[in-house]
Amino acid sequence: MKLNNFKTLFILLAMVGFMSCSDDDDATIPTDDMMMNDDDGEVMIDFSGTFAQEDQMGRPGINTVLSPDNTTENAFNVTIPSEQGAAFQPTFLQRAVDLHAAFGVEYETNILGLDAPTLTTILASDVLQVAPNNPTSYFDGTNVLTGRTLTDDIIDISLILFFGGENGDRFNGQDLDGDGTPDLPILVTDGVSAAGETPSNAFPYLEAPHN
């Protein structure tokens, strides 16, 4: 199993978690009886009633990868961040340990010096921190989780924190026994480069179409 390319699984899980819908999704399209006009004639939507949280994604991919089943994933999505740590950190920790064990190794303290319990404690609360007095970055080698820019390679950063070990390249397709065949899969990148991305400075921050 150690030759399986787990980064492909990571990407697929993230895509499925982002795009899939379950039977309990109650997406609502505004209808005529929900529309009304304010005093200035502007069209407004009536948001009265009872609403329920169904999803959240402060850090893309974390819940998808570290939740072992759909029940856990759905429960995480409806739990407020202040309660997520106590409820899900033990499960996320076991998942991180299991993912490494699948390749016959143990989790190694990562490039930030975080062991598995500390890393999963941080990631179990699905919030995106902002540091007003520091450069905004998901991780740029110096600044860690101080925010997020449009060009931050979130998936690669997450993969490196999980599987990169102390130097950030632990799972990088290495041939450990010199037989010409990789003994470790490439897990520290999804292979999709963010180089050259130039989002605009105005909402919705789209870049020019690629020809």
Describe the structure in your own words.
- With 211 residues, this protein is an all-alpha fold.
- The protein has 6 helices and 2 strands, in the order αββααααα.
- The protein has a two-stranded antiparallel sheet with strand order 1-2.
Give the topology.
Elements: H1 6-19, E1 35-37, E2 43-45, H2 62-66, H3 70-77, H4 81-101, H5 116-123, H6 154-163
Antiparallel strand pairs: 1-2
Helix pairs in contact: 4-5
Q: What percent of residues adopt helix (DSSP H or I)?
A: 25-40%
Please report the number of helical segments: 6
From N to C, what is the helix and strand string?
A: HEEHHHHH
Low-confidence stretches: 1-25
What is the first-to-last residue Cα distance?
Answer: 40 Å
Quote the beta fraction. under 5%
Mean pLDDT figure: 82
Q: Per the principal axes of the C-alpha atoms, what is the gross shape? A: globular
- Quick one: how many beta strands? 2
Q: How many structurally independent domains? A: 1
Characterize the main sheet: 2 strands, antiparallel
- Which class do the helix and strand fractions yield? mainly alpha
* Order of strands across the main sheet: 1-2
What is the CA-atom radius of gyration, in angstroms?
Answer: 21 Å
In a nutshell, what does this entry contain?
This protein is 31% helix and 3% strand.
List keywords for this structure.
globular; single chain; 6 helices; mainly alpha; 211 residues; disordered N terminus
